[in-house]
Amino acid sequence: MDIFAQQLINGLVLGSIYALVALGYTMVYGILGLINFAHGDITMVGALVALTIVQALSAAGIPAPVILVLAGGGAMIVCATLGLSIERVAYRPLRRAPRLAPLITAIGVSILLQYSAALIWGKQYIAMPKLLEPAAINIAGAQLTTLQLAIFLLACTIMAGLLWFIKASRMGRAMRATEQNPDVAGLMGVNTNTVIAFTFILGSAIGAIAGLMIVLYYGIGHYFMGFMLGLKAFTAAVLGGIGNVGGAVLGGLLLGVIESLASGYIGDLTGGVFGSNYRDIFAFLVLVIVLVLRPSGLLGQHSGDRA
Amino acid sequence: MSINALLTGQRVRWAAWVAIALLLLALPFITEAVLGRSWVRIIAVALLFVMLALGLNIVVGFAGLLDLGYIAFFAVGAYSYALLASPQFAVHWPFLVLLPLGAAIAAVFGILLGAPTLRLRGDYLAIVTLGFGEIIRVFLNNLNRPVNITNGPQGITLIDPLQIGGFSLAQTHSFAGLTFSPVHNYYFVFLLCAALSIALSLRLENSRIGRAWVAIRDDELAASAMGINTRNIKLLAFAMGATFGGVAGGLFASFQGFVSPESFQLIDSIMVLCMVVLGGMGNVAGVVLGAVLLTALPEALRYIGPLQQRWLGHVMVDPADLRMLLFGLALVLMMLMRPEGIWPARRRIVSAPTENPHGG
Q1: At what angle do helices A146-168 and A245-269 cross, to 10 degrees?
Q2: Is the peptide bond between B146 and the residue preceding it cis, with omega within 30 degrees of 0?
Q3: Hey, where are the domains in chain A?
Q4: Are residues A280 and B126, on separate chains, in Cβ contact within 8 Å?
Q5: Taking the model in full, what pTM does it have?
Q6: Rounded average pLDDT over B65-85
Q7: Structural domain boundaries of chain B?
Q8: In this predicted structure, what is the pLDDT of residue A201?
């Protein structure tokens, strides 16, 4: 039982990080219909910027909470700027181009970001200095560290805030209108260019926080870390129904839990034939099964044959 | 157009074809003399990528089904060949049996992927195919336990070279005063296969099936209303595309003599997709151009290291990183300048027959 509880906790924490990254994918997809392949790498840049700030400041004897706020803020600013400029340079000119053209520029931007990061930070793993010694809380025979709790709560707060923002604020309404029909939204006085740029800023800033959480959680950063993370997050977004913000949250949490539980149990269940080295498969297996049963994802609206 | 002009037109076209054929036959020797043998290898690999890109073009370009895991079929073909023609299981089947077998296995995998995903649209399909590619790779990586099938990350070595009758491609042959080293032999086999793929693609494009694919791509609902069996035709696209990949995979395994899961990563799927889209989706000539360009470009960028040495006196930036940077930049710039691809497909406009018998 305690293994189950432990894996559940680990899964929820990991899943909340996936969900934050998935939000960036799903918001951009909802509005532009574009798989923003570079989003995982924006998260990577956020993680490495945060790591650098922490490294620089932790030696100076500044209290840990201040360092974390500064690191998070710095990463958000860098990522938001990056997201905004990528949208302007690589995606906006192709808005009326064939559907796959922006996908290729997204792949190009992703490669550019990865290898720029390799030039700046090098190709080795970078260790995160230990800022705080997280305390452990015992719940139902499982250990929950304060770091895990903090990550989970912060992620939930951000997600709830975003859901509220999209539902209630003026800009959120403009985002939903643009998502439904950019041309008509434009006729109703919504500046769709501003809305799209804002979406990129928002998604990238949230990705930056996810990046900070990842380096805090795992303690290391790497120029290629955004690739698998992006893949998982995109899977989560599709699982929940891409374009649906609530779906991204659900998909992310679900994916994290499934992955943790499956990799924790598969060795016992199959008598050691399949080990946890198959963990990356579960995400995709679940995805295939869900999509076969519900082709628009868990919370996605069923679009008829005429979208 | 008079009969005479038509004849000259045809004659010019024939002359052009003969010239291209001669050029392609002489290409490995010219390349070796000018750029060295490593470039002969590169153009041989480029021909393999031509086959791969043409296969993906059937799925993405003709039928409009975005496939992000295409390299899995290449892997299936390569591993089928490797397992049945290497010391791994101590079986050494002949190439002429293995090539169709590899193609058939890949086609089965294509249908396996296609069948559950028929209901999915657009980007949902993309992510499922991506997952499929990853699943295949993880299995190849881990199926060395409990029974050693794929030999895990080490891959399979000592794969038999191509041998047709008593003629082994791995030996140097002399013919008509020319020396054919193994890489030349493979070049000519790949050239033949690539030419067959091109011919097949061109014939498919204008066939009943090809037109059905395009109809599904443009409007699935209308296509099915016109009596196209969309399920079978989509499955056929997956199977056909996979077949191209399987054949290329078998050739690749014999050419390298070694396969490992390393060669079949997501980035390779993406690379083949880039060839298709960048070259000009749906246009066979454009796709061939895209495949050749994207194979040659990263290789040509290898010269950046020595150039830095010469111009700046020292190597400023790690050449491997710089090469990938420039490659990413090139993808973005090329797409921004030509969103339709370098050589886009011409929309064929079929006009209704007019009253005028000479019209058109």
Answers
A1: 150
A2: yes
A3: 15-224
A4: no
A5: 0.85
A6: 92
A7: 35-264
A8: 96
